[in-house]
Amino acid sequence: MEPKKNRMSDLNRNRGLYFVLGLLFVMLLTLVALEWKTYDRGLDYDISMNVEDPLAEEVPLTIPYKTPPPPPVQAPPIIEIIDDEEERIESEIAATETDQEEKILEVGDVEALEMEEPEEVPFIMIEEVPVFPGCEKEKTAEDKRACFQKMMGRHIGKNFRYPEIAQELGIEGRVSVMFVIQKDGSIGNIRLRGPDKSLEAEARRIIEKLPRMTPGRQRNTAVRVPFSIPINFRLE
Prior knowledge:
Belongs to the TonB family. The protein is an alpha+beta fold. The chain has helices spanning 15-35, 141-159, 164-169, 197-208, and strands at 173-181, 187-193, 217-218, 221-222, 225-233. It has a domain at 141-233: 2-Layer Sandwich (Fusion Protein Consisting Of Minor Coat Protein, Glycine Rich Linker, Tola, And A His Tag, Chain: A, Domain 2). It is 25% helix and 12% strand. A three-stranded antiparallel β-sheet has the order 2-1-5, with helices on one face.
């Protein structure tokens, strides 16, 4: 005859559940113990003291200045007394007045100094600006300057090519270009500053393709004229 057992009194019935609950409880205690943080209340301080007051006036450094000692007292010069009977020779004072016999220089005898003409005059100050090919019909200096700027922009837009290596690397920016229009109308002394060598090389290529211009003149004399312009490289 087999013994009868009550299933509700069997202790091994929920053993797996109890094991999982116990394991979760132990892991929870371990996590709390690892994350538990304590702070030392004795080291509290006002963090507002770390911020400098931007309106605080700087106190100038005072350098003590020492008064220099007075110069030494010099003895008075010895005065020599001369007897009245002794003759004294006075120095002769030359007269500054002119007489009628003195020759007066004529105006033609005076050599006038020739003023040296400037070798280089800025674009905005020159009397006769350089003439870009196609701007010869303009009459006033302001119209020639405006036409020069317009033709420069048209030349850059016509010859502009974005460097392939700059496109692949995503390089863009502004290249500042400065060059000089020589006395014969040619372009020289090109200087560039930009964010990348490939952009500078492209800007130099564009400026070197500029046509020969009519040179600028100052006092009817051909002079060198520096000119600067920015070239923007933008990726779309």
